[in-house]
Design goal:
Distance between the termini of chain A: 32 Å
CATH topology of chain B: Rossmann fold
CATH architecture of chain B: 3-Layer(aba) Sandwich
Mean pLDDT of chain A: 90
Mean pLDDT of chain B: 90
CATH class of chain B: Alpha Beta
Largest sheet of chain B: 5 strands, parallel
Number of strands of chain B: 7
Number of helices of chain B: 4
Number of strands of chain A: 9
Structural class of chain A: alpha/beta
Number of domains of chain B: 1
CATH class of the largest domain in chain A: Alpha Beta
CATH topology of the largest domain in chain A: Rossmann fold
Low-confidence stretches of chain A: none
Strand order of the largest sheet of chain A: 7-6-5-8-9
Helix content of chain A: 25-40%
CATH superfamily of the largest domain in chain A: Aspartate/ornithine carbamoyltransferase
Radius of gyration of chain A: 20 Å
Helix content of chain B: 25-40%
Oligomer: heterodimer
Distance between the termini of chain B: 12 Å
Number of domains of chain A: 2
Largest interface: A-B, 25 and 22 residues
Strand content of chain B: 25-35%
Largest sheet of chain A: 5 strands, parallel
Strand order of the largest sheet of chain B: 2-1-3-4-5
Order of helices and strands of chain A: HHEHEHEHEHEHEEHEHHEHH
CATH architecture of the largest domain in chain A: 3-Layer(aba) Sandwich
Shape of chain B: globular
Order of helices and strands of chain B: HEHEHEHEEEE
Chain lengths: ~325, ~170
């Protein structure tokens, strides 16, 4: 099943775009041209302004139905998607999969086709299986805009784009930037999407810093430099992205202990001092204080962690309205 | 090619009419809002000419268009900026060309999401008729009657001067 999905993913990546090259599903950063990534960031910039008004709502998706399909737990991502859809004036349904018909034995395809029959326009999908959103977009509901909200170890493209927006706000451009991604790269779909986006947008160097056991075997093919030591790896970087230690994904003993991990790879003020003085500190959340990041850094002046959350709403509004645009255009192709 | 008025002359005449209008209606400290992109250029002129103290606002109505379900989102959308309190304010809403009235409807919807203005006055450099909504400008530079598919567009030259370009025949 997994190999089959991988094959489909490689074969038909262009399922994301319509014939005019507009986004109609948002599944992965991988095949998207730089101009499209920049369009997402520019559109999100305009939505940030909407979030500062007394009425934080625009009528763009009035009458559209958005279904949040989270097959895996999430608070922040689901909430910001819901808020984004509501700020676009869409009607939102949050489907709790654990109490839905899936647990009564209905297959994924049947559940989705039923939702489609209720005239849904967009599915926000999070799934533990890599490639599930792609499978839905290509095989089950091609006329519903599918937004990937995280699939297995594969991708989390809206998280990567909100990170790119946060970096661009602080650093203006990507050229010349050295970015370090630290921690559990192996289990991180966020890191994969970030690396693709940073390279496509022109960052000078992307470093990953992690113990051997948390570095994926294909890391070098992603075009990153690999460091196993924080002090060397953080030297003169502009952006530090800390990843959460994914304890729930940790099968087998990849680490001696959390305390040991924090001592070697946790970001505290002493290690932060190796980066440029104006370096920013990012984290996709939820943060494990004292495991991958010290409280004084997470709450410190260089942290932009809460800006990331605010930007998450704007980026998701941008992606949702762009995918809907692409679907509208695709129907007249 | 029908004759188009010189933009500078139109602006000059229009700002005089607008001043008269404001006086007649006892509007003392209005705020000026231009609709991107042509409306902003006209608004800049009026804002200066009226010596407005309130900073000028700019609207990008892309998020409020009524044809999203047919056309989708404009990929060139820029953030709107209303750097003043709209609540209770007298607002001069400025566009370069008015035709169907749909842009003005979208702009008014957007303004109301910032607050409830006391009143909105509509100013347009060119009025092309062919209205599809009951919206009329209070102050106009030039009225033109064009054939159904005719278009007039305000352009900004590299030296900063404004120019009206016409496509299609005059009625």
């Amino acid at each position: 099943m997994e190999a089959n999905l991988d094959m489909q993913m490689n074969k038909a990546l262009s399922v994301q775009l319509n014939q005019q090259g507009q986004l109609k599903h948002f599944l992965t950063i991988d095949e998207l041209p730089r101009t499209l990534l920049e369009e997402i960031l520019d559109t999100a910039d305009s939505f940030i302004e909407v979030g500062q008004r007394s009425i934080k709502k625009v009528p763009l998706l009035r009458g559209k139905t958005v279904v949040n399909l989270f097959f895996e737990a999430s608070t922040r991502t689901r909430t910001t998607f819901e808020l984004a859809a509501k700020r676009l004036s869409a009607d939102v349904i949050n489907l709790d999969i654990s109490t839905s018909a899936t647990s009564k034995g209905e297959s994924l395809s049947d559940t989705l086709q039923n939702l489609e029959a209720m005239a849904s326009d967009m599915f926000i999908v999070r799934h533990a299986q890599s490639g599930a959103p792609h499978f839905i977009a290509s095989q089950v509901c091609p006329e519903v805009a599918i937004i990937n909200a995280g699939d297995g170890r594969h991708a989390h493209p809206t998280q990567a784009m909100l990170d790119m927006l946060t970096i661009r706000q602080r650093k203006q451009k990507f050229e010349g930037l050295v970015v370090a991604i630290v921690g559990d790269i192996l289990h991180s779909r966020v890191a994969r999407s970030q690396i693709r986006a940073l390279r496509m947008l022109g960052a000078a160097e992307v470093r990953i810093i992690a113990p051997n056991t948390l570095i994926p075997c294909d890391a070098e093919s992603l075009g990153v430099s690999i460091y196993r030591d924080m002090r060397n790896g953080l030297k003169d970087v502009d952006v530090i992205i800390m990843l959460r230690l994914q304890r729930e994904r940790m099968e087998g003993a990849l680490l001696p202990s959390e305390g040991e991990f924090f001592r070697v790879y946790g970001l505290d003020e002493e290690k932060l001092a190796y980066a440029k003085p104006d370096a920013i500190v990012m984290h996709p959340g939820p943060i494990n204080r004292g495991v991958e990041i010290a409280s004084e850094v997470a709450d410190g002046p260089q942290s932009v962690i809460l800006n990331q959350v605010t930007n998450g709403i704007a980026v998701r509004m941008a992606v949702m309205s762009m995918a809907m645009t692409g679907q509208i255009a695709a129907k007249s192709e | 090619m029908a004759s188009l008025m010189i933009v500078a002359d139109l602006l000059e005449a229009m700002s005089k009419n607008l001043k008269q209008y404001l006086e007649t209606n006892n509007i003392e400290s209005p705020a000026v809002i231009g609709i991107r992109s042509g409306g902003v250029w006209v608004a800049e002129y009026l804002h200066k000419k009226l010596a407005c103290e309130t900073p000028m606002g700019e609207l990008d109505i892309s998020f409020y268009r009524d044809d999203f379900t047919r056309k989708g989102l404009n990929p060139m959308v820029k953030p709107s900026s209303l750097p003043f309190e709209t609540e209770g304010k007298d607002i001069i809403l400025v566009d370069d060309v008015i035709m169907s009235g749909r842009t003005i409807r979208a702009a008014m919807n957007e303004i109301f999401d910032y607050g409830r203005p006391a009143r909105i006055i509509l100013v347009s450099l060119v009025d092309m008729g062919n209205r599809e909504l009951p919206i009329q400008p209070d102050c106009v530079g030039q009225v033109m009657a064009l054939s159904e598919h005719g278009q007039v567009k305000l352009l900004k030259n590299t030296d900063g001067t404004l120019e009206l370009k016409q496509r299609g025949a005059t009625k």
